[in-house]
Amino acid sequence: MKNLFKIELKRALKSKSMLFALVIGSFITISYVIQFVIPASMGIDEVLQYNKSKMYCPPTIFVGWIGNAGYSMHNFLFYMLLPILATIPFADSFFLDRKNGYIKNVLIRAKKRDYYISKYLATFISGGLAIVIPLLISLVITAMFLPSYPPQAREGYLIGAAQMWGELFFIHPF
Q1: What are the DSSP calls for 25-68, one per residue?
Q2: Using one digit for the tens of pLDDT, what is the confidence trace for 25-43?
Q3: Residue 123 and residue 30: Cα distance in Å, rounded?
Q4: Stated pTM of the model
Q5: Contact, 64 vs 173, CB < 8 A?
Q6: Cα–Cα distance between 2 and 144 in angstroms, integer?
Q7: DSSP state of 149
Q8: What value does the mean pLDDT of the chain take?
Q9: Which of 137, 167, 155, 135 has its CA nearest to residue 47?
Q10: What integer pLDDT is reported at residue 160 of this predicted model?
Q11: Which of 4, 7, 25, 173 is 20 to 30 A from 76 via CA?
């Protein structure tokens, strides 16, 4: 089973469809950074310089990355395409294996149960990576432009202080 899982995972991660899903997800996050994060980082000095009454909070990484940017077109597009991006990398592999006769060759050498478990795990991991990698790219690039001040409740996060896990977010935001 271990060897079969390695083969399936290698097939999933080196496929053209995995690269396609990563390119689409990364394109959405990088275009978000270019259109929103970089312009927001240009105004940080003015906010800090003229903020005598401490009423304004400069934009931070916690409100700037695409995972928490609730009202942008890029965030909406990314989360609407999330199920499709997760299924693109390896979802059609079972159909192609049956069509090409690959499954017959594998089932001669391995148990059917082991093949299905390996296929399931490889599909799950590749779908998760197709989503997590663009989100990490957004977080890292946003961290290069925006500071990581502790979040303030008045900044307008999607997570409120009174909501579930809100206290944890405002104490340990990462």
Answers
A1: HHHHHHHHIIIIIHHHHHTHHHHHHS-SSS------HHHHSTTT
A2: 999 999 999 988 888 888 7
A3: 25
A4: 0.82
A5: no
A6: 39
A7: P
A8: 84
A9: 155
A10: 65
A11: 173
